[in-house]
């Protein structure tokens, strides 16, 4: 994709400077335009999710939630879904895994979920790969070619067993699906006293509320490398979320939340084993897995 030509066509100004570039699941370019504006351009494979995700992001930004305001619609270019959004500079990550930090993240997550209740868009499915416990692919894990091509025998049996039990518990629920941020991690938020910006809205998912809450409760502290917060901090997050939303989870929702709290770490543990990376999530799953599975009724 010709970045400068795209900006000229969609934003009315060519690129003067690229001051940030990250290539991962999605490519992100921070650009200074010839007219002086600073914007971010995001491009990812067009899997049909982008339009719904951007519409939800625009709705939240319009109602005062701290997230970047989209500046263009989604434009498909050479199989990529591309859009631009405003820059929200400044702030820093809020690091820490304590229950006190968990409550701060839970408050922001509850705020986002309350606003997303009013957003009506086609469900952004499938979920992002690390949250895709609800896949319809054969086998335990969602089909991800570059992971599936590796030697699966190196994934420890305790990871496979826990993933099978978590997924069985999650698939057994009939709780309704809602919109929610499925990558609610420290690396995607910036703070300046209070929360300044929540990023990565192309990671929305359509899953039960309790599952989205649970996933965030386990992963909120993730930067690099990702891990799993202490059990008491997940408990604090789940409890605080209910408090901030003004309702109490049912027993079913509590179990679903605890099951989902483990899935992202299991995905990351599998990744570590397949790539020979340091066993950070692997160690956390080994240490905490049994307690979380018990809380999940799994």
Identify the notable features of this structure and list them briefly.
single chain; 298 residues; alpha+beta; Phosphorylase Kinase, domain 1; Aminoglycoside 3'-phosphotransferase, Chain: A, domain 2; two-stranded antiparallel sheet; 9 helices; 9 strands; globular; kinase; Ser/Thr protein kinase RdoA involved in Cpx stress response, MazF antagonist; transferase
Can you characterise this structure?
With about 300 residues, this protein is of the alpha+beta class. The protein is about 40% helix and about 20% strand. The protein has nine helices and nine strands. A five-stranded antiparallel sheet has the order 1-2-3-5-4. Helix 6 packs across helix 8. It is globular, with a radius of gyration of 19 Å.
Topology, element by element:
Blueprint: H1 3-11, E1 15-23, E2 26-33, E3 38-45, H2 50-62, E4 75-77, E5 80-86, H3 99-116, H4 145-148, H5 157-171, E6 177-181, E7 189-192, E8 194-198, E9 204-208, H6 209-219, H7 231-245, H8 251-275, H9 280-295
Antiparallel strand pairs: 1-2, 2-3, 3-5, 4-5, 6-9, 7-8
Helix pairs in contact: 3-6, 3-7, 5-8, 5-9, 6-7, 6-8, 8-9
Protein name: Ser/Thr protein kinase RdoA involved in Cpx stress response, MazF antagonist
Keywords: Kinase, Transferase
InterPro entries: Kinase-like_dom_sf (IPR011009)
């Amino acid at each position: 994709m010709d970045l400068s030509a795209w900006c000229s066509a969609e934003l009315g100004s060519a690129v003067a400077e690229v001051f940030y570039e990250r290539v991962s699941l999605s490519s992100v370019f921070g650009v200074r335009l010839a007219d002086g504006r600073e914007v971010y351009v995001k491009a990812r494979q067009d899997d049909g999710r982008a339009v719904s995700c951007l519409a939800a992001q625009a709705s939240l930004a319009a109602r005062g939630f701290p997230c970047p305001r989209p500046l263009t619609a989604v434009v498909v270019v050479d199989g990529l879904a591309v859009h631009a959004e405003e820059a929200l500079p400044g702030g820093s990550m809020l690091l820490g895994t304590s229950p006190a930090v968990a409550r701060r993240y839970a408050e922001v997550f509850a705020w986002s979920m309350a606003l997303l209740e009013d957003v009506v868009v086609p469900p952004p499915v499938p979920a992002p790969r690390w949250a895709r416990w609800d896949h319809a692919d054969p086998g335990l894990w969602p089909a991800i070619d570059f992971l599936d091509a590796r030697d699966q025998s190196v994934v420890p049996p305790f990871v496979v067993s826990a993933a099978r039990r978590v997924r069985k518990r999650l698939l057994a629920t009939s709780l309704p699906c809602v919109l929610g941020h499925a990558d609610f991690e420290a690396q995607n938020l910036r703070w300046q006293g209070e929360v300044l910006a929540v990023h990565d809205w192309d990671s929305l998912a359509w899953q039960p509320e309790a599952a989205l809450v649970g996933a965030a409760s386990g992963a909120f502290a993730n930067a690099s490398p990702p891990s799993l917060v202490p059990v008491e901090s997940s408990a604090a997050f789940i409890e605080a979320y209910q408090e901030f939303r003004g309702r109490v989870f049912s027993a079913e929702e509590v179990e679903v939340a605890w099951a989902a709290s483990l899935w992202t770490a299991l995905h990351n543990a599998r990744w570590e084993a397949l790539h020979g990376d340091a066993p950070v999530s692997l160690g956390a799953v080994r240490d905490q897995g049994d307690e979380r599975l018990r809380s999940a009724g799994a």
